[in-house]
Amino acid sequence: MKFEDLLLEIGGFGRFQILILALLCLPRINLPMHFLLHNFLAATPSHHCAIPHQEEFVNLTMEEVLLVSIPRKPDGTFSSCEMFSQPQFHLLLNSSLQPENKSIIQHCQHGWVYDHSQFTSTISTQWDLVCEQRGLNQATATFFFIGVTMGAMVFGYLSDRFGRKTMLQLSLVCSVVFGMLSAASVSYTMLAITRTLTGVALSGLSLIVLPLGLEWVDIQHRTFTGILSSIFWSIGNMVLALVAYLVREWHWLLVAVTGPCVLSIICVWWVPESARWLIAKGKVKQAHRHLLRCARINGRKDFAVSPEVRNYKNMGGNYSYISLFRTPVLRRISLCSGVVWFGVAFSYYGMSLNLTGFGLSIYLSQFVFGIIEIPAKMVMYVLVNRVGRRPSQAWTLILTGTGSLIWANPKIWLPVTGFSEAAFTTVFLYTSELYPTIVRQNGMGYTSFLARLGGALAPLVFLLDEVWRSLPEVTYCGVAVCSGAMAFLLPETLNMRLPEGIEDIEKPHGTEDAGGRRQIRTRAGRS
């Protein structure tokens, strides 16, 4: 008896499943509030070199003080990183003149003055992470995603070994601890370390929430569950914009986005462990207890554990990341899905961490970024059910890459953002369906590792504009298109049962679909 048959006996998709999904929504909202926090935490307001001896300019306006103290860039704006070694008072007579003697221009010697009209303080203004230190500012996001990358490997293995719920609770508790320590940082080094550890902790949250929900729902509602979980990510996007607008000081902003994790801990307390995982690990008695509770809440009081269920196959054992590469089909799935995840995250965070230059305030840009994701996910709900997971994944990535070449055009950034988010929405659902229950979290951990590696590299690509102005866009395009092409090599999972053991995906003949029809899954990946 397959687990989907058990689900049908206990009500399929009823009040119990709705309750689980509702409880898992808040943890999902927490994620983007940290993953996209860099836009506000490390925002760099307009700035210029601090000018010493202000008493010499008592009769000059601020504009005139800047004119004689700060050189202009070719576009006519004042330089952010350079100043004159001596005041150039002759520029008051003709401001269009540019000093021919470049030796009088030097780097800022006395710090910087920042525009605080939009941000009370950020880590850029706190520790002067501008000009020569600009790389450290971008590296803050990289440190966070390095943490997420390491956490993916840790929580992916542990959640397959010790259970989904236990690791989800541990992830949330650690997120609160390290998030609050980040808010209390007194140096850049302390912030870098605590943000890295916060990334490690939040990785478990990112990995476990969706698979835990999917393992409790039937075939017909898997797509709905995946899209619903993704929509709450978008809601988190919009909540982040609102919180950042209200809290302009970076210490308190970190407190504000970490606080909801406490409420998530309470919500997760009421979420049951995955009965599918418990049975696969041979913990049949615990699984039966949860199944009986599910049947009772769904109104199936006549449900009884049959002898066949009591003798359900025990696929328990020690599986690791090496298991993902031991057999041919699973090896191909792991290699291809890893490339796809890297491309999805690389392109998504390349756009979402660069929400400037669109003629909108950063707060409105972030809010709009969240809003436009929701229609994209509604469209994906139809596409992945009608067209299939594989073509949907491939073409959303290819279109994202193509559009990223002209990403800075305000007329195109909305649809490109929609394609990028659609790719991310699909990959979570698709990957959860590709891997067997017994190694699902190992598979999610491995693919998430590569995704977060892409997320860690994405902010650093912005620095390539110093080599060639269009190099970042070309890089994002190339990676997205190549990873989209790789998605065509993955097997289709539309209307397929979730595989329980590795043999379920290795055998040449697939499993039955939702209507009882046989679907063929060959080693070539066709279905």
**Strand order across the largest sheet:** 1-4
Largest sheet: 2 strands, antiparallel
Task: Kindly estimate the percentage of residues that lie in beta strands according to DSSP.
Answer: under 5%
The beta-strand count equals: 4
Overall, the morphology is elongated
Work out the helix count: 21
Give the end-to-end Cα distance, rounded to a whole number of Å.
23 Å
Strand-and-helix sequence, N→C?
HHHEHEEEHHHHHHHHHHHHHHHHH
Radius of gyration: 26 Å
Q: Low-confidence parts lasting 5 or more residues at pLDDT below 50?
A: 509-527
Helicity range: 55-70%
Average pLDDT figure: 84
Pairing-aware structural class of the strands and helices?
Answer: mainly alpha
Topology (elements, then pairings):
Blueprint: H1 3-9, H2 15-35, H3 38-41, E1 47-49, H4 62-69, E2 82-84, E3 105-107, E4 112-114, H5 123-127, H6 134-162, H7 164-183, H8 188-214, H9 222-246, H10 250-258, H11 260-269, H12 275-280, H13 284-297, H14 307-310, H15 328-352, H16 362-386, H17 389-404, H18 410-434, H19 440-461, H20 471-487, H21 503-506
Antiparallel strand pairs: 1-4, 2-3
Membrane topology: Multi-pass membrane protein
Subcellular location: Membrane
InterPro entries: MFS, MFS_dom, MFS_trans_sf
